[in-house]
Amino acid sequence: MMPAITDWESDFTAAVAGLQSKGPAPLLRRINIDRLDHDLVTADDLQKLLEAHNQQDNHAVRQLALALADWDFEDEPAWDAPASPTDPRTQQRRQRAYELLQLPAEAAARLDEIAPVATMRTTVISTKWEPWYTEKRRDQWALYWPDYRDYLLEKQGWPAESVAALDQATTNVVQRISDPTSDHQYQSKGLVVGYVQSGKTANFTGVIAKAIDAGYRLVIVMTGTIELLRSQTQRRLDRELVGRENLTRSLVDGEAAAEFDYATDEDWLADAFIRHGEHFIAKGFPGIERLTLLNDDYKRLKQGLTSLKVHLSDPSKPFYDPANLKSADVRLVVVKKNAAVLRKLAQDLKPLKNVLGDIPALIIDDESDLASINTKNPEKSKDRTAINAAITDLLGRLPRAQLIMYTATPFANFFVDPDDAGDIFPKNFIIALDRPPNYMGVQDFHDTSWDSDAAKTDPATSNEAAYIRRVGPPPEADKPEQHAQREAEVKLALDSFVLAGAIKVFREKAGAGSYRHHTMMVHEAVRNDKQSEIANLVRQVWKDNHYGEASSLSRLRELWESDYRRVCAARADGYPVPGSFDQLIEPIGEATTRIKQDGDPVLIVNSDAAVQQHQQALDFDRNRVWRILIGGAKLSRGFTVEGLTVSFYTRKALQGDTLMQAGRWFGFRQGYRDLVRLFIRRDPDLDPRRVDLYEAFEGLMRDEVAFRDRLRDYEGFQDDGTPTLEPWQVPPIVSQHLPYLRPAGRSKMFNAVVNTMGDSGKLKDYLGLPPRKDSNAKKANYESMLPVLAAAKEDKAFTSTRAKPEEPIRQFKAKVGIIAATGFVKILGSLEWHEDFKKVIEPVERFYRQLVEEGRLNDIAVIWPLPTTASLLTLPGLGESPVITRGRRPDPRIDFSGSDPKHRDALERIAGKATPSPDAVADKLRDPQGRRATLLISVAADVASAGESKCTPGDLGASPDPGDLAVFLSLAAPATATPHGRSVIEWTVKRSGSVGEAAVPAAPK
Asked: Which one of 317, 472, 478, 729 has the lowest number of neighbouring Cβ atoms within 10 Å?
């Protein structure tokens, strides 16, 4: 007979708690150790408990899931078998834990289902640090972190893996900042990289909690530049960190209670704010005093000294001594990144200058690539931008301040000069967070590989088919057909919003969750007047759609059958799906009523005061929001649009960070992932001004993946404890997979230079050769290229490229040879070029060297055409060879006319690219592994004494001087060298001590 859960669940929880820090040991034995007077718990009892619950809805099972996740993450645990150690985050590690817990196979299998192996992995690049944040130190004053961890598990329903990963990631951060109790003043700067809408706020909330427990007593959180985000961040911290007891400490009379900023908040009234216990201050733990409120950014304190003054429990010791720190209250400031606000804070700190050096302070810079970075080029101006200057001033006033920067688009942060000690380069650590479970990011909206084109039409296998709906560009005023098209697109988007809302209502009625918010975002323009125009269009289309009438039901039925029924069937993740459209008729009425509850389905979210005073304020905390949100800047950059299900996005951007941050459709969509739709601008392929935002986001996805992969390449430590690379030594890692989409704005990239640049499968000319009169450079080039020219020995006939489809297929003859790539890149690096062409060719050289080093380029197919117009001359070291006429371009051009287009297809085909014309000869020269590039070479007359006149082979004589020859190169890298055959640019930074040079010297040529 299974004992009642209430009889033994507490013993189960206590047993797990006892094992958590020590490691797994026989679980049932621990549970039964004090149950001599009760029924002993058996393996069958444990199995029944696991079958009845999962880690989300049972405290005891959740604690076991958390312990398992902690053990999954642990590096070289003492409890693992020394003879055959297991790797973290593997099934082998989990199996070892099961064996030590002595769990039956059935229990282990059930735990694999409800608490899968924790696989999230934090990437860390760091300087060496003093290991002060030990387990003993973490437990010594622990209050805020344990309470926050339990809040996430119990109140927010976070899965155990996510909480364990957060614990590990936040420890990685806190252990790298300075010990707040140390006599040594030290200021560290670090960067934490997350994903857009992926839980960065939770991470820095955890960091703050651990930092407070460790002794930090002034916490400054800088949010984005708009009040909407600052207020949202303030509320998150108040609800999940500050807590009920701290928030009510100052409510001493009725008037104060009436003015309390959460007096009418639904979560406050529902007791959803974190609690720390009524007597936590009496027990010696610090309280938290807010210097900013929900709707009040920082203002000059009338009694700045009183509000910020430090209290010394032991005046004989400095404030940072544990005797004073332990019970000293924490001051929390949540501010916008506004220069005036930051200066007010600095002004209130000024009177404390004698003790500021003793205050352990933590500065969190959220969205750190926005506004924080100095965008004034120091070569042109000694001044800094206002916000950057205010941040550096704060750091200067607080010698014990630690700066931790957070962003999902870190490219601009890597362009900060590491040698500028006053700036905010992350000199101490860079930490990249992994994708959390249940997160929908850019990868979830794109398809990266396919077995067949047919799969793209199936929402079960294609993200594009499931979530993406194509719309055109914003209509031009004088083109009514474009306006009609836009109305039709908005009509479909609104129908999708209503139908998705109805499915949410259906799921609520089925007991499968509650959907407090259901939102649609329309982001087309940044100007307020344009947003008002769009809002009027949406209102008119909403009216014309006649929701609630029979005419709309037939249209929604068709949308259900053609779209939502198929996607829900494939991607509902176990959530209820209507068996027929008829089951949605009543929920459609309920959804429509919720959306137009206040008579207007639209909320405009911008700074237009006249608009704001005539509509309900956007407040996800106080109100249930089922609305269509229309805006620009305020609906991007860190602000979380709760319940976002349908997005209509057409705004063009030329900076990668701006575009990625606009992706508010990224985030957690628990319970309605299958209902998400993205209506995104994709202009017709033949439009000369074509914009494809879906393609742009795919390019950004590849930039992001490349960035994170490269970070992992350089993380880690040597055997002696020194880091593999420190942050300032990290080689170029900022990629650009689309030529028109720069990683960041130009003002953030004054310190950036191109490090590598390359294509795949495309023939590119590199013809910026030394000036005609520079005979020595041309001779050196000829001698360097002699082995390459000599390798082309075998005569072949290739198919010529047709300029027009109706032209006949022709052939061209050429000498062919194969050379090793390692030798070629050395030759390429030794060639002389025109001085102004070096900035073009050097990134290309590094690109090919990188391909060789990474094992993605083995050899080069050399093609030396034999045109009928060429002259056969005796060349030094080669004998009789073809010499052509090729004109130099007039000033200010520095190169020659391009290669003959008829050679293109054959060379690109050898490199692995699919081409229109079949060519059996080229196909035989292909490398099956895709690791062969092609080189088109030619030799032309370029007589040094000819001045500006045109040179022909007849000007050379029978035995030409190499100084009168120009050797031309055109290259096609393997088709596999870059994703989708697109150009890829990698950026690096200049150093102030060596302007124009890379942060890391290039490898020897």
From this structure: 478
Instruction: Using the CB atoms, write b or e for 578-611: b if 16+ within 10 Å.
Output: beebebbeebbebbbebbbeeebbbbbbbeeeeb
Tell me how far apart the alpha carbons of residues 480 and 488 are, in angstroms, rounded to a whole number. 13
The rounded percent of the chain whose pLDDT value lies above 70 is 88
CA distances, 823 to each of 304, 830, 858, 874 (Å): 69, 11, 10, 26
Cα 376 to Cα 94: distance, rounded to the nearest angstrom: 52
The answer to whether 976 and 988 are in contact (CB under 8 A) is: no
Residue 896: strand, helix, or coil: strand
Q: Which residues contact 683 (CB under 8 A, 6 or more apart)?
A: 472, 473, 689, 690, 691, 692
Which residues make beta-bridge pairs with 796? Answer: 814
Closest by Cα among 490, 486, 505 to 587: 505
Q: pLDDT tens across 707-729, in order?
A: 787 777 778 777 777 777 778 76
Contact 261, 239 (CB under 8 A): no
CA distance 316 to 622: 48
Question: Maximum distance among all alpha carbons in the chain?
Answer: 111
Find, among 350, 648, 386, 716, the residue nearest to 491 by Cα. 648
Dist CA 441 CA 195 (whole Å): 8
Q: How far apart are the first and last CA of the chain?
A: 77
Chain CA centroid to CA 609, Å: 34
Question: How far lies 85's CA from each of 100, 121, 164, 630, 716, in Å?
Answer: 14, 19, 21, 55, 19
Query: What is the DSSP code (8-state) at residue 723?
Result: B
| Domains of the chain as residue ranges with CATH | 5-114 (no CATH), 123-432 (3.40.50.300), 453-689 (no CATH), 705-753 (no CATH), 755-988 (no CATH)
Q: Taking 80 as the threshold, does the pLDDT of residue 591 lie above it?
A: yes
Amino acid at residue number 525: A
What pLDDT score was predicted for residue 723? 79
Distance CA 937, CA 860 (A): 12
Q: Which whole-number Å values give the CA distances from 870 to 624, 737, 884, 965, in the listed order?
A: 79, 39, 5, 14
Distance CA 535, CA 376 (A): 37
Position 993 confidence tier, pLDDT thresholds 50, 70, 90 = very low
Stated as kind and residue range, the H or E segment containing 269 is helix 266-269
Angle at 467 between CA 691 and CA 545, to 5 degrees: 90
Token pair in block for residue 604: 């405009």
In this prediction, residue 556 carries a pLDDT of 97
Strand 794-799 with 932-941, pairing = unpaired
Cβ distance 225 to 336 under 8 Å? yes
Dump pLDDT digits (tens) for 198-231: 888 999 999 999 999 999 999 999 998 888 889 9
**Better pLDDT: 637 or 278:** 278
Residue indicated by tokens 């040991």: 25
At 350 the three-state DSSP class reads: helix
Run of H or E residues at 619: none
* Residue 304 pLDDT > 50: no
Least confident of 67-76, 238-247, 521-530: 521-530
Whether the full predicted model's pTM is greater than 0.85, yes or no, is: no
Mean pLDDT value across residues 595-622:
81
Look at residue 962 in the predicted model and tell me its pLDDT. 94
Burial of 928 (0-12, 13-18, 19+ CB in 10 A): exposed
CA angle in degrees (0–180, nearest 5) for 153-169-657? 105
Nearest-angstrom CA–CA distance, 659 and 695 = 12
Nearest-angstrom CA–CA distance, 911 and 895: 25
* Residue 267 DSSP class: H
- H runs (alpha helix) in 682-773: 693-713
CA distances from 415 to 192, 541, 744 (A): 16, 45, 10
SS3 539: helix
Q: How far is CA 254 from the centre of its chain?
A: 47
